[in-house]
Structure formats: structure tokens, C-alpha cells
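Incident log entry.

Two folding requests arrived from the same account within the same minute. Monitoring flagged them as a possible duplicate submission, but the sequences differ. Recording both here for audit purposes.

Request one:
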Amino acid sequence: MPIILDPLQMKKLRGKKRLRKPRPDKVPVRPEGELAKRMNQLWERVLFPATERIKRLVEAGATPSELASVIEQAMRQAEFEYNLAAEDIVWRWRLSLEQDTRLAFVKGLRASLGVDISAIFEDQPLADALAMAGMEAANLIKTIPSDYLGQVARAVADNFTGVPQPENRNLLQQIQHIGGVTDKRAKLIARDQTAKLTGALTRVRQQSIGVDLYTWRTVQDERVVGRPGGNYPIGSKRHSNHHIMEGLYCRWDDPTVYSTDKGRTWLKRTQEMPKNHPKDDIQCRCHAAPVIDLEKILEKARVS
């Protein structure tokens, strides 16, 4: 899609000699908080009452068969409620995130280029990114009841067969613990999915204005995976080593290569390097700083 400029903007852009450093694509706080809040409200409306009922039955000395029947009934009802609510929750989250990231992207371009750029973002790649993210987030939300109540059912079965609960908890304490873990998982889903979609929208929007390359940037603190002396000095299969990616040139069309000479030559990423883009890994806080090529932007520009 073309970038729409008026004649004065086009003239100003053609005469641009120096670009300001682009702003990082920060993960918006509002959409993440809204998603976490709605998931918490769903928990309180559906799973919290079911949990309280199960706990009362445990305290009353219910038999394993009675507990199993209640858990099975609660699971069917919870799965129905979560399936019903997930699509609406995700739709609102995507809308909020798309709006916030769009405003930030346009504002960042204005600060870097010195002109207002109105690119048409409602194209197929953007729709695809939103659709894929929505599907993943909705599926994760829908699995919460079966994961949670499945763990509760396992705790009840272990208690019946005499298998000790973890860390010597009794059954009630274990059910309470599982609930806390599930609550943390919901917050993790909100944080991780918001970061991933932010990264996907960044990629689509950068490519839409002719940005093919980016510089991998970490937050450069002790939590960066792979940083010597940091909290996680050794990379993992799950998260690779992001510390060594700092400052390297990368390509949006090929996440398996990197460059140390500003894109003149490309090398295959080593085994410890991630084979994806910033924010793709779970809880990744890195960002893709665009390598802006004015000529490519001008090629896509059209005077209004």
C-alpha cells in the first residue's frame, strides 16, 4: 500500500539529511492490563465459585466419587463459559492493542522523519497478524478450565491413593496452590500474548513502509537471557541467548541470519542465537529498531 504524503511533506522528506533515532516499540500497558482484568473477571465468575464448592466438599469429607462428579460437572460448565467469553475478550484486546500500537508507530515515525506519514495499514499482512494472534490467545484462554480443574482432579486422586501432595500440603492447601498458579498463568498469557502481537504488528508496519532490516535491541539489564553475571547467564532452548543479539543487524524476511557490518554481508545465526524476531520468545522484552532507508520510503510514497 502507498504512503500518502502532501507535496510539502514529500519535499521535506526528500531534503532530509539526518534521521532521529527511532523509538523502541514498547508493549502498551493498557491492552495488557485490560486483558488480564477480563480474564480475572472470568475466573471470579466461573472458576472461583466452582473451587469454593469443591473445597467445601473436601472439608465436609466428601468421597472421591462425589468430588469427581462435581469436578467433571464444573469442567463442562467452565469450558462452555470460557469458550463463550474468549472470543469477545480477545476481540476487545486486539482492537485496543492495534489502536495503541498504531498511534505509537505513527508518532515514532513523525519524530524520526520529521513529517507525518499516513500509511494504509489495513492490508492483508496486518489482518493476518491480528487473526493469528487472536486465535492463539483465544485458545490459551479456553484451555484454562481443563488445565486447572484437571490439576485439581489429579490432587484429589493422589489424596485418595495416598500419594503425598507437593511440599507436604494437604488437599485443601494444594487446591489453593493450584488456583494461585492458574492466576499467575492468566497474567502470563496477557503479558506474553500482548508482547507477541506488538512484535508482529511492528514487523508488518515496518515492512509496509519499506523497512526490511532492523537492529536487535535488548533492555540491557540483569534479566536479559545470556548476559554474563546476570540473572540468566546461560541461554536455554526455550529462550536462546538474547544478550549476544544486542546491536546486530537482522532481516525481517529471514530470522536465521545476522550481520555485523550493517547488512553488507549475512551470517547464519549460531546454535545459541534465537531463530526468530524480538518479542517472539515468551516474555521477551527486546525490540526491533528499524533501519530506515529513505529511498525505499520515497519509492512507496505517493503525493495526495
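Request two (distinct sequence, not a duplicate):
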Amino acid sequence: MVTVKHERIGESGGFDLLPAIDLRDGRVVRLVEGDFARETAYSDDPTGVAEALAAAGATWIHVVDLDGAREGAPRNTAVVADIVASITGRVSVELGGGLRTEAAVDAALATGCARVVVGTAALEDPAFVGGLVRRHGPGRIAVGLDVRDGLAVGEGWRSGAAGTPVLDATTRITDEGVETLVVTAIHRDGLLGGPDVELLELLIGHGRGRIIASGGISSIDDVLATRQIGCAGAIVGRALYEGRIDLRLTLIALAAGLD
């Protein structure tokens, strides 16, 4: 296990801002609404992007293996390992995408990732993720809930995927000891239209787990709004790469306790 020491710009009241690095064929990209046909590539140097985020003050980075998510098994493991190695001791890495077996989770954590996000496999078999929590501890295992029309769906990138009412899914997963939920509003992901506050408030009110918001965040105000309603963190992607959010200034605002 790798211990990561954080060098924070200041305390942000237990709220974590996680800039995202989404990987496809070794490149940094963003999808719109999880659609692989609506991709924008931002960099061919994921390690360089991670180092820049670390230099700006990031203490967490959210990495997604999009190829792994689509194919059901990790596909960018070497790239992830390079990212982790480049920022070890400064930034914690959270990794998701294609982690559907115990062996895949073990291998992901062995790269030095601080936490992994299990999605489809957790929805299909909550007991599976419960076993991971018992094996690795709740601090290292999160569950990703991709939500469309009130349903938590596996393979959230695929239109028409079957789903479970999100509160039911949340209850079953947290009953297994999961403490952190990464909640993506699919209909807002990559569109810069703001977070789905209604969905986030529903889950926060349910009182099950720490909620990390994902999807639609486009400004410092959006980030602060997610904290104000009780989220434990927020993931920013496209807005960061297109200059709508300045990471360092946003971290300073969070540290200052601005709302």
C-alpha cells in the first residue's frame, strides 16, 4: 500500500475537488453523456496532465479507464501506473473503469491508487463490493452510480442499459459497508449545464454514504454549490480543460470556506 502525503493549499472542510483524467487509447479525452461517439481529445500526455494538476494544488485526481469501462476489464493499466508514479507523495489517485473482478481491483490498487471505483459489478452483485470492502477497507473502495431517469445503470455509457431505482441501489450497496459513492448524472455529463442538484440532494437526504458529485459542473459556483448542499466532493472535467474553471483558484475558494 502506498501512503500519500497531501500538500494542501488549505483545508476545505472535508470536501475534495477531484479533477478528472479520462483515458481512451492512452489519451486524455472527455465524452458527452457517456457517448463514445461524442469524444473530445485534450492531450496525448496523461502523465504531463497529472503533473500539471498536481502543480496547481490538486490533492486528488479521478482517473477513468474508458476502454476498460467499455470492454469490462482494465485496458490502460500501464498509463495509470505511470500517472501514479509521477505524482506519488503529492496526490491521491482514484481509479475507475472496468474493475469487475477481485483480481482487477487488486491490480489497480497495486499500482499505488489510493481508491478504486467499482460500478457495474457493484450494481449487479452488491455482495461482491462488500467483499472488497472487507478485504481492503472502506477507505479504498468506492462505488460509482451512473444515473439516468432516476435509475442507477450498469454500463452507463450504453443507451438502454437496465437500471435499479437509485435509492434502492444506494441502500443495497451501503448495506455492504461502502462509504463513498461517486454519482454521475449521465444526462448532464460533459454538457457544462450545472450539476443535478435535485438528484444530489435526494441522495444526501437518504443519509447513506459520502456523495461525490459528477456531471455538468462548469464553474466555481457549481463546485461551491455541491459542497453547500452536503456533498463530500466534486469531480471536474471538461470545464477544467476548456478554461471555465481555474483549479488553483477553486481550491483557494474552497479552503477559504466561500459559498
